[in-house]
Amino acid sequence: MAEEPVAIASGTNTYTRLMDPNRKWYNNRRLIALNAWIVLLLITSSTNGYDGSMMNGLQFLTQWEEYFDHPTKGKLGLLNAIQNIGALAGYPFAPYMADGIGRRPTVFFGALIMVIATAMRSASQSVGMFIGARFLVGVGLTFAANAAPMLVTELSYPKYRAALTSAYNSLWYSGAIIAAWATFGTFKINNTWAWRIPSLLQAIPSVFQQGKGAEALKTLAYYHADSNEDDPLVKYEFEEIKAAIELDRAVAANVGWKSFFSTTGNRKRVRIIVAIAFFSQWSANGLVSYYLNKVLTSIGVTDPTIQLLISGVLQIWNLVWALAASSMVERFGRRLLFMTSVVGMSIFFTMQTICTARFSINGNKSAAHAVIAFIFLYSAAYAIAFTPLIVTYTLEILPYNIRAKGFNISNLTISLAIVFNQYINPIALDAIGWKYYIVYCVWFVFESIFLYFYIIETNNRTLEETVAIFDGTGTTDPSITSAATSAIAETQSTISRGVNRRLQSESSENS
Questions:
Q1: pLDDT band at residue 502, thresholds of 50, 70 and 90?
Q2: Which residues does UniProt assign to the signal peptide (predicted)?
Q3: Could you count the other beta carbons within 10 Å of the beta carbon of residue 492?
Q4: Out of 84, 332, 363, 380, which could bridge 321 as a Cys pair, Cβ 3.0 to 4.6 Å?
């Protein structure tokens, strides 16, 4: 009996043993309702995608260009980068709010700031007002984007947790699609509403609100077991949450930022988290995400209608690939998707560079058409790993007690990389044109080497096994072991009480 809690406390295996095999997302109305609420949380990622794609689209609009005096180089870079500079301002506070007042209030707080900022940006009368509003959008997005993925992970039914968490970042493209087609729909309006309407639409996404604290058990029971608070799965999940919170309180004094560098395991985690976060924004994707008009203009595609159509179709293409990859995360594993992605990006972007060079040198139109094809192929390669796995993989390798701060490190790294990309890319493109692409071609070699040697497969591993990989054999996450022990004790107690009542009833009948 002494070995049973350890055997049970095996993360994914535990959930598999405790889940009702007949409970599917499509045949249980409460799971349907839960997933519907989670979809609203996933919209937080759409808001981020909308902002990036909107700024890309606005550069196609002569109305926006003329109103802001045709920004180029550093000025254009600042207009794009200021949103992530605002995000940097929010990072020191976001994890403390998420841990202190809860995930849901933090999401709501961030969404409220974004609504106010979007209204300001849509009413902008000057470049300064537009820049200030985008700064506030970044601040609000930091709070919402820091808390929302963790809430998705913690509320999802275990069977669908990986797919839903992976879908979070994949839905960046849903916002990008709306923004791309919104700018396409308004670019023929011959006044400032051509850019004010797309800016205003960013305020539409809803905010998911969820109770916490004492309601946790009722919430888990309602959605995961049809309100049966004695269900073994619910007990396990609830005890895991309680144990993690108690562990968090017990070690709070030692879980500052220094904890990420105090152990070998955590240093490994930081190395991977920072690397894949940086790679996610420094894999040449910033060129297409924020400066597609410059890329297309460099190959002779200058008609705004054609440019906007390519942008809109590209975002749909990206969403399809990202969601397809999200559904395959459990089947093919994380490492295979990462390696397939980086190799594919290396090949397709190198071909894009060669074809752009051919057009630049001799005006070869066939080479220009090939560039468009390689942009689509490159984007698909990027989407199959770096879109769905950045959030999923980061949260998987972080223990509960450092998850919020660790995820904040990931988001901070992403924003720093984006700021650099958004500010430097237009300057470099104007200065050296297609030759700037060569920098990324060389960089892909480094990415491939790093991912090959350092990415650890977490698919089909229990949480304890993942902890052991980073922290050494025999090391476990105390919250998991405690959760299993408590859940088993509670379940056995429930069974014992039921047996005793039955024996007493039979004894009374016999007497």
A1: very low
A2: none
A3: 12
A4: 380
Residues 463 and 372: their CA atoms lie apart, in Å, by 43
Could you give the angle at the alpha carbon of 401 between the alpha carbons of 453 and 392, nearest 5°? 45
Cβ atoms within 10 Å of 72's Cβ, excluding its own: 13
> In this predicted model, which residue has the larger pLDDT, 447 or 155?
447
- The pTM score is 0.70
- Picking from 413, 445, 95, the residue whose alpha carbon sits closest to that of residue 274 is 413
Give me the helix-helix angle, 29-58 and 73-90, nearest 10°. 150
CA-to-CA separations, 62 to 57, 186, 319, 425, in angstroms, rounded: 11, 11, 28, 21
CB 311 within 8 A of CB 292: yes
Distance, in Å, from the CA atom of 353 to the CA atom of 11, rounded to the nearest integer, reads 45
Average pLDDT, the chain: 77
Determine what percent of the chain falls in helix, strand and coil, rounding each to the nearest 5: 80, 0, 20
* Nearest C-alpha neighbor of 288 from the set 394, 376, 411: 376
- pLDDT tens-place string over residues 353-405: 999 999 999 999 999 999 999 999 999 999 999 988 888 888 888 877 777 78
Q: Which two tokens stand for residue 430?
A: 């104007």
Q: Which CATH architecture has domain 29-211+251-460?
A: Up-down Bundle (1.20)
Residue 341, number of CB atoms within 10 A of its CB: 26
Under a CB-based contact definition with an 8 Å cutoff, are residues 419 and 81 in contact?
yes
Q: Spell out the alpha helix ranges (H) of 333-436.
A: 334-362, 365-383, 389-396, 403-432
